[in-house]
Amino acid sequence: MRRERLDSVMRWCRGWQALSTRRVKGQIAYMAVLLTSLMGLAGAGVDYGLIVVESARLQNALDAGVLAGARALVLSTAATQGAATNPASGTRNYDDEQAAKAFLVSNGYNVTGLNGVTFTFSSSASVKGASNDTMQINGTVVKPTSFWKAIGINSTTITQRATAVSTGGMVDVMLSLDLTGSMEMSGNDDLGNLRNAVNAFIDQMQLSTTVTRGTRMGIARWAGVNCSWWRGTSSSPPAGAADNDRYIDMDKGATPGAPARRHARPTAATTLPRPTGWRARCGDHDGRF
Amino acid sequence: MTDGFSQSGTEGLPSGYPTYTTIRTPVQNLTAPTSWDYQAIDLADRLKRGPDNNLATIEDNVEIFVVGFFPIPYNSSTASNNWARSRAAATGSVAAGNHPCPAATLPSAGANTFSYASNSVAPGVDELLNTISSSTPGSCDHYFPIAKSEGASLPQLFQIMAGSIARGRLQ
Fold first, then answer.
1. Entry pTM
2. What's the gap in Å between the CA of B148 and the closest CA on chain A?
3. Looking at the structure, do residues A257 and A222 belong to the same domain, yes or no?
4. Has the ipTM of the complex gone over 0.95?
5. Cβ–Cβ of B167/A166 closer than 8 Å?
6. Which of A16, A249, B39, B101 is the most core-located residue (most Cβ within 10 A)?
């Protein structure tokens, strides 16, 4: 009776052993498949991670380059804009590209079109820009893969873009303009040029009533101790009346409000032909500033 | 933005027009029109220091850019109506980008491209306007001279000045 019981146990153990052997073999196969999949996923993850890192690195380089380029664009003393592609030296596009390229190089990118890295530069005028004040760079990097090659993907192309506009930011600006008579008397429409310059300056600073953290600007008209801020007259209207002309009003009288007489703008001269006893009143103060 | 000269001389000044005692040393007691140049320098200096009157606390300081707009050619005449006394405006052009200022280094007196009070007809208008500006010592980086004959380039000059104030903003 005891022996029969022992045989029964032995049979059970042998059955269990056979079953376990079959299970182990199955688990090994399962683990092999699982590990292969995991390694594949990990490899794909490594490639994906490298692409993400490269993408962020490219974007950072483009941001730095475009910020420098936009600033160089408005700082450039070159008179001409230059071709959109391959701009010649001495043009504004050339200056902004050089500034941008310096930052791209310092961020580790080859800007000569080698190693699968290419950049294209462009500039344009913003809505308020008096001239080109906005720069854009498109960057493309061909990134070789390591593990994705197993599924036929040998490389991937990363493309990023950055745009920057030159603006005054949180800066308050006060323009103090000399509008005294001498500013108009060269015969070259000096105050007309000044008006154009102020308009260009305002546009360049990107003034906006909707941007609360943008530039604020004021204009002060500077006249001088002997100028009085009343308008002269072109012929004989009452003193102080607006004449809305483009002439300097000069008057011999010393009392503000006294009748004024117009002094015609002279032809080009290096010095002001100031008649003895006359003095210039304020410059063109017809309200155009 | 100025041509740097007083419109009138002493004629027509109100009687008893006050003299001016300079703030910066050496303290001088000056009469008009000489006093106006010194007063302008003192006022600009105070402005640069900001509300707390401290140049070291830069947060509130005011940065001054000066555009000198002069007739040319340079004329050394001492006549009161001669305003063509800027050598810097008479040298180079905005279009060519070769005016001696703005620059990181002041032109030497011997170069005769910058009107110093010491070697030019008083008041040495380039030196005066550069002193009023926020140029760093030894430079004229905040002084923008231009000739009236190239007035059409004045907008370009103002844009360059705006560019030196502006910073890029990503869009």
1. 0.65
2. 7
3. yes
4. no
5. yes
6. B101
